[in-house]
Amino acid sequence: MKLFVCVMVLASLAVAAGCTMPRGPILASLAVNEKGPVAGFSPDAKSTRQGVAVAEGVILVGFGDASISAAKIQGGISKIHHVDSETLNIFGIYSRYKTIVYGE
Q: Is the separation of the CB atoms in 35 and 99 below 8 Å?
């Protein structure tokens, strides 16, 4: 019976940790300040402004808007040059996904 309870607790933790795993170039239980490209859009747009949008998760609760549109609005950008991302995940308990949009 103790083995069954331990297996169920571990399975529950694995499922709960999966809810806080953000997208990123790598997938790991601990990824601190991981950065990577998302996309490049218009090479003729200048990269003079920057907009940031953030979504966060704590165990089973996720909140925020890390969309490219939200980052464009935050930075006052109308023409996108390129988009980067930044991911933070601490043992599946806390995670953050940040979208950084560059443009004019």
A: no
